[in-house]
Specification:
Blueprint lengths: L8 E5 L4 H11 L4 E6 L2 H12 L7 E5 L5 H11 L7 E4 L14 H28 L3 E6 L12 H21 L4 E8 L8 H5 L1 H9 L9 H12 L10 E4 L12 H13 L4
Parallel strand pairs: 1-2, 1-4, 2-3, 4-5, 5-6, 6-7
């Protein structure tokens, strides 16, 4: 426990569980006032109750909304800004999907892009406005190894995450003049609800392990500790960085999730016979 963020105000989208909750916890433990945003009020309430029990906790609150809806993000940022000031923001809300590109429905493509890429854009935009008006701040997006290495049959997800990383670089270049730092973290396989299928399918999990020099899956805390550093005073001269936190997975190839494609879409679709 410390006071690295004592008196600072923070917002974390997708903060009710997994990586988002771990990020919120790391901020609260350092004295920050934290608002977590998500779509499930029951999950947010339980998470907020856990966070409020942490020693040194500041104000903990939640906001029910969809990160892919701009008005929801704008209102959440307003609620998170204490006395009009916002200091820290984590764009974590995300969704996944798996299908061969030739069979990907436009609705699925649009939904992934809206939550992952547009949701990150909305938070950078509105958190950036609040930070610019109050003297600066730090924003961190949660990207993915899928934005760094191809993942067959996960095209929409990969493109959304690669888009986040370029958005982060461009935002960092623009917003530095307002004393706003923007970075992203690219997790590998982390034990979260979103990754449960990958974790429990032995052939896929073993392939992930084969792709990692540090052959273990990640914990949410592995990611939150990197996010905390990038948002901290110790990183005050770091912006526009896309940091892989993945056991070295980015040094090798993307994982083989072909078994899922064959199970869900059949051999013909998986092998390009449509």
């Amino acid at each position: 426990m410390g006071d690295k963020f004592k008196g600072k105000s923070a917002i974390v989208t997708g903060g009710g569980s997994g990586i988002g909750l771990a990020c919120a916890r790391s901020f609260v433990a350092e004295g920050a006032n934290v608002l977590i945003m998500g779509r499930n009020e029951e999950k947010l309430q339980k998470a907020s109750e856990q966070l409020a029990l942490i020693d040194n906790a500041g104000k903990v609150s939640w906001f029910v909304g969809d990160a892919g809806i701009e008005s929801d993000v704008k209102n959440a940022v307003k609620a998170a800004s204490i006395n009009g000031a916002l200091d820290l923001a984590v764009a974590n809300a995300g969704t996944g999907g798996l299908s061969p590109i030739l069979l990907t429905e436009s609705e699925s493509w649009d939904g992934i892009m809206q939550t992952n890429l547009s949701g990150t854009f909305y938070l950078i935009k509105h958190a950036g406005v609040a930070m610019a008006r109050s003297g600066g701040g730090a924003i961190c997006a949660i990207s993915s190894i899928a934005g760094v290495r191809t993942h067959r049959f996960m095209g929409a997800y990969c493109v959304s995450k690669a888009g986040i990383d370029m958005l982060v670089r461009n935002s960092a270049d623009e917003l530095g003049v307002a004393n706003i730092r923007v970075n992203s973290v690219c997790p590998g396989l982390v034990d979260t609800e979103l990754a449960s299928g990958l974790m429990t399918t032995e052939v896929v999990y073993e392939d992930y392990m084969d792709c990692m020099p540090l052959s273990r899956h990640g914990r949410p805390e592995d990611i939150s500790e990197a996010v905390q550093f990038l948002c901290s005073p110790e990183a005050s001269w770091i912006t526009g960085v896309v940091l892989s936190v993945d056991g070295g997975h980015h040094l090798r190839r993307g994982p083989n999730v072909e078994p899922f494609s064959r199970m869900l879409f059949g051999d013909d679709a998986t092998e390009g016979r449509v």
